[in-house]
Amino acid sequence: MKTVSHHVLRLCRASFVFTLLFLLVGGTPPAVSHSGCLDRGESSGGAVRVLEGEAGWLSCPLFSHPSIYNFTSAQSAGHTLLWHRTPQGHGLQQPVPDSWRISRDEERLWLQPANGNDTGRYTCTLSNSSFCSRMSLRLRVLPPDRAVRSSACEPAVAVATQSISVPLQSDAVLDCPELQEAQRSAEEEEAQVTWSHLCGRTSFTLYREQKGGRLQIHVMLSSFEGLYFCRVQFRRTGRLLHFTRSLNVSAIYSEVSLLCRGSFPFINSSWEIWWTVDGKTLDQLAGQHRFSRADRQERYVHGDRWEDSVLRIHDFQPQDLNREYNCSVRNDRGFETRRVRLELEGEPL
Ligand SMILES: *[C@@H]1O[C@H](CO)[C@@H](O)[C@H](O)[C@H]1NC(C)=O
Ligand SMILES: *[C@@H]1O[C@H](CO)[C@@H](O)[C@H](O)[C@H]1NC(C)=O
Ligand SMILES: *[C@@H]1O[C@H](CO)[C@@H](O)[C@H](O)[C@H]1NC(C)=O
Ligand SMILES: *[C@@H]1O[C@H](CO)[C@@H](O)[C@H](O)[C@H]1NC(C)=O
Ligand SMILES: *[C@@H]1O[C@H](CO)[C@@H](O)[C@H](O)[C@H]1NC(C)=O
Ligand SMILES: *[C@@H]1O[C@H](CO)[C@@H](O)[C@H](O)[C@H]1NC(C)=O
User: Fold this and answer.
1) Ligand nearest to the CA of 111
2) How far apart are CA 307 and CA 264, in angstroms?
3) Of all protein residues, whose CA lies closest to atom 4 belonging to ligand 4?
4) Best mutation site among 149, 220, 225, 250 for ligand 4, i.e. most ligand atoms within 8 A of its Cβ?
5) How far is CA 315 from the centre of its chain?
6) Which region is the signal sequence (predicted)?
7) Residue-by-residue pLDDT tens, the chain, 349 positions
């Protein structure tokens, strides 16, 4: 009995010391386990999802954002990092076995590849003889038939789709998410990336091209919208591994410029050139900062003048196609107005 109360007293003191530490560094209140290790709880980012049969990795949350420790410094200070796991279903924590299928790379644990039995809670413990701190994260290994797919011909992906917007007619480069993780840990040859779009029914010939691991879009067209999949293949500890990621590419309109040129013969009178949008001058449209105008003289010969006015529509939106853009000119002799009709540029069939 005496020993037990002693033990409890020691724990209370230790807890007080560590609570002070928590106040200094911020974060969730740590708890002290019976072994005297500071338990920082579970990483808040949600479970790491990996597709069964694909390569995956777990990064010790003590070193990830917001990081508490720096792996390089911890390593050079002689701290050791140990991994334990509590498999789903049976609640016993056990050391993660070293095997050909599970390997370590600095603060990461690699699943090469993941299998359904890897699902569970993983804890990494950083310690030396006088210090110990640990944190956990959850891993969920998804069978391919449980991954969300929008059509049956698409590859299964366990990780959330990244979205990117590309202005129409402009160029863009698509990078496969997390490719650098494979590149960082790949041995010998470089990681290989295979891109697909529309279930591989389209080839990357017209205006699109794969260069190294990246997919270049030279001219964005609306037919290039949709889901892209990249499959990364690499070799690690002698094993050929792969993982798949997805990108949702949307086309957006960018800037549209309309040029109006007015010719004013010399008649010794005042002159004017201006734009209206749906019958309103840009002053009247004040507050709609998407419209702006720049004027300049194009030519001036013995009193005859040619004046340019460029209407810029920033962040062009589909409804801007239906607006009425008029350029008007006026001098003492009269007034002229012309309407500009906008159409979507033709897409290759
Ligand atoms: C960790 O520390 C090393 C040297 O002490 C530094 O070069 C590195 O940038 C640090 N890493 C992070 C993620 O802060
Ligand atoms: C998962 O573990 C069970 C029991 O240890 C074993 O029978 C099964 O083959 C394992 N499944 C995989 C995919 O490794
Ligand atoms: C253990 O690590 C702590 C914190 O990094 C450090 O203050 C202490 O000196 C280390 N102890 C030994 C014996 O290396
Ligand atoms: C891709 O993004 C568009 C919006 O830009 C959205 O309507 C569509 O549902 C997304 N598709 C997928 C599969 O996420
Ligand atoms: C131009 O018009 C102004 C007044 O409108 C007049 O004073 C001036 O004499 C005119 N010049 C010529 C060259 O006609
Ligand atoms: C715009 O110009 C067209 C002629 O090109 C004209 O019929 C129309 O009335 C003009 N609209 C406005 C608001 O001035």
Assistant:
1) 2
2) 8
3) 250
4) 250
5) 21
6) 1-27
7) 333 333 322 322 322 223 223 333 333 445 555 568 999 999 988 899 999 999 999 999 999 877 889 999 999 999 999 999 998 877 788 999 888 899 998 999 999 999 999 999 999 999 999 999 999 999 999 999 988 887 888 999 999 999 998 988 889 999 999 999 898 887 777 899 999 998 877 788 889 999 989 999 999 998 999 999 999 999 988 899 999 999 999 988 778 899 999 999 999 899 999 999 999 999 888 767 789 999 999 999 999 999 999 999 988 877 888 899 999 999 999 999 999 988 776 544 3
Cβ distance 127 to 69 under 8 Å?
no
What count of other Cβ atoms lies within 10 Å of the Cβ of residue 331? 17
Domain 256-340 in the same topology as domain 26-142: yes
Cα 155 to ligand 5 centroid, rounded to whole Å: 77
Domain 256-340: give its CATH superfamily.
Answer: Immunoglobulins (2.60.40.10)
Residues with CB under 6 A from ligand 6: 276, 279, 324, 326, 337-339
Contact assessment for residue 83 and residue 124, using Cβ atoms and an 8 Å cutoff: yes
* Coil, strand or helix at 135: strand
Indicate whether residue 106 lines ligand 1 (CB < 6 A): no
User: pTM score, two decimals?
Assistant: 0.67
Q: How far, in whole angstroms, is CA 325 from its chain's centroid? A: 37
Nearest residue to 60 (alpha-carbon basis) of 75, 82, 30, 78: 82
Q: Say how many CA atoms lie within 13 Å of 345 toward its Cβ.
A: 11
Sole residue written with tokens 């160029």: 171
The CATH architecture of the domain made up of 148-252 is Sandwich (2.60)
Residue 130 alpha carbon to ligand 3 centre in Å: 6
Centroid of ligand 5 to alpha carbon of 268 (angstroms):
6
> What is the rounded CA–CA span in Å between residue 204 and residue 197?
9
Q: Parse the chain into domains and list their residue ranges.
A: 26-142, 148-252, 256-340
Q: What is the DSSP letter of 224?
A: G
Give the architecture (CATH level 2) of 26-142.
Sandwich (2.60)
Q: How far apart are CA 282 and CA 264, in angstroms?
A: 22
